[in-house]
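1st attempt posting a full record on here, be nice pls
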Amino acid sequence: MTGAPLLDGRSVRRMGFGAMQLPGPGVLGPPRDREEALAVLRRAVEAGVNHIDTAQFYGPDVANELIRSALHPYPEDLVLVSKVGAARDASGAWLPAQRPEELRAGVLANLASLHLERIPIVNLRRHPGPEGVPFSEQLDMMIALRGEGLIGGVGLSTVSLDEYRQASAATEVACVQNAYSWADRSDQAVFDACRADGVPYVPYFPLGSAFDPSRPVLSAPAVVGTADRLGATPAQVALAWLLHAAPHVLLIPGTSSLSHLEENLAAAELMLDQEALDALR
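the predicted structure (as tokens):
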């Protein structure tokens, strides 16, 4: 991949913003501080962020409503990326919503909550689950939604290498969003395939996952030691490492705090010297 990464045919900064942390605890209900959540979104765009990742089931509807309230009418260069394939019940449990008709309903719900006629990119978040919905049927629906002009590009999330290859053979893939971090490189095969194909790769859990404490990032000695030597934070080192890993990487760290937002944005300017790269290797 040469030049600035493209999403929906538009150049985007490599440091984006993820809206998952804007709703309340458990990604459920209203934010802790609505005014600060709105300020975070406005400051991100003011600082040059033009790629925001969201989903209707964040809240549900909370993240999208905050984005709309803070930023609508949207800047011309802003690329909103949402996702379908999941839902929430009354208790906040995460449920699969994988059937083609549920994918369509998810897109329509995103369009309504974001006040858009077309979502630039929608990721199909794959969840095989007990329903066992054929991947080919899901792809057909996503391609149909693009053909109807409801979405601009078909992205993928939580997919295997075989699924990525299957999707690439069927249609152009706008981006891939899988779990990947300094401490968890189990998705390396998909990472490398996207790099070879020039497809943007958007790692989620870039600072590690609370669901897998066996792979810490922010407390790892190599990360902490590098941060201390460079006068940075461990989070900045971990994000800078991902940006250095390959030019097709786009980051979407999320926060509901203005101070954490500034910390994340500054990671884009952190240069890792050879000593740092050796330590992190």
